[in-house]
Automatic annotation (TrEMBL):
UniProt keyword annotations, A-Z: Coiled coil, Membrane, Transmembrane, Transmembrane helix
Coiled-coil blocks: 45-78
Residue ranges crossing the lipid bilayer per the database entry: 20-41
Protein name as catalogued: OmpA family protein
Amino acid sequence: MNNPSSNNRQNNDFFWPSYVDLMTSLFVVMLVLFVYSFKLFKDREGELKQANGELKAKAEELEQITKIRRSLERLEGKYFKYDPANERHELLVPVQFKAGRDEIQDAYKPALLQAGRTLRTVLKSIKTDQPVRYLVIVEGMAARYPAGDPRNQREEQTTYQLSYRRALNLLNFWKQNGLDFGQDRNIELIIGGSGFFGTGRYQGRREGDNKRFLIQVIPKVGRMQ
């Protein structure tokens, strides 16, 4: 006949080791989960710090660009007009080229020289908390012939070269008169020609006014190479 007290003792001897093993396993699982959660938290904390740092840098950069854009308003006046729709400046000197020619006539040179001096003076006078480089795009344009003139189609491609040469002649003229933008470490100059095309062109009766120059100044804030 079985002894009840003996059975209870055997059950207890079996229960407690199993219970201890279970609790040990649970402890190990909780410890692993804690370590894993802590690592995730630290990783997330690092990502948040990095993101906050990047956001702060972007905010500071945006603030600098806003200040620069306000300073560029000093260009507006006798020689430049800002076009808010296309975010660029139009050179107000009413340059007129002979049809199909790229030479700048002497009558326009004094005003063009003063415009170049104004541009360089304004760019050099802007003060910023961070290094800044200016991408200056000088774009030449060309006017179409009257509607129906076959030269509009025949010369469509060659006017890209023509308008580019007009912009190049302007830069060479400035350089010959002591305005060498290439010597300014914080100015990167690009010459372009849009021919019969480009945004913000005059239409209709003002087509002839497309024989002009556009100046676009794009500030780049940050470490300079």
